[in-house]
Protein: Transketolase
Organism: Streptomyces paludis
Amino acid sequence: MDTMRDRFIATATRLLDEDPRLAVVLAEISRDGFDEAARRHPDRLINVGIREQLLIGVGGGLALAGVRPIVHTFAAFLVERPFEQVKLDFGHQGVGGVLVSAGGSYDWPAGGFTHMAPGDVALMDTLDGWAVHVPGHPDEAEALLRHAAAGDGRDYVRLSLQSNSRARPLIPAEGRTGTGTGTGFRAGFATVREGRGAVVIAVGPMLDNVLAATEGLDTTVLYATTVRPFDGEALRRAVAALTGDAADVVLVEPYLAGTSTAAANDALPTTPHRVLGLGVARRELRAYGELADHLAGHGLDPRSLRERITTFLAR
């Protein structure tokens, strides 16, 4: 199976052929994969070199000129390093674009902490009007990229090397809903498993681990590939189907733990509830290891997740 990043390169190349309003802006990362696109569309495939602030500035400038930019590099260099440009050149200027990251929280451990961005979604959460998409499979990455490219809002698509074993269908929409979304899909949490004891929300590539961790437990599992806007209505429906006077909600996210706990709390203003936010810990894991080692180190492997979830539910 190809990776999400492979699929992004192939899909973005086809999108340049299909839609003349699109441009791809790079900062060296993934440059070699776009050689053919650069030959076919030299005016719409722009590589600024290792200049991440310029990367975002060029994307914002293109958007001001009526172009729909697809801007790509590692998450640490797309969100964290040029955050001021993301805030001003897109948000303050009131223009849209598609930011597509690779690297995620710990996809390349040998690169060290400079190439990890577990806080990227939390950082984007401080800005107004961004839709945040976290696909869990290359097929979902392609669908969400096409969805975002067809729109005119501000979209952040977070790719990862970690992938679920199979793609899940995105939720169809009758029309455009939510900031930053295109036609064909709407932001929403899909029900993968139904239960009456608790609700567990699995974000993107965490779904397979969550399903393994909750096997045999009386839990509803919701699957989120778009986390902003947060689907409070789906959470309220799932909570309403639980037994008991109070609700337990567990969020399992592939980035900073607790990023969406406030959104979950806000979705349940009149319901007695508890929320457990699981994700990447604030502490830095300083040993390189492999991706699987970082999952286990942050308690996001199936065994650790089951222990943490069952302990929370038993309290």
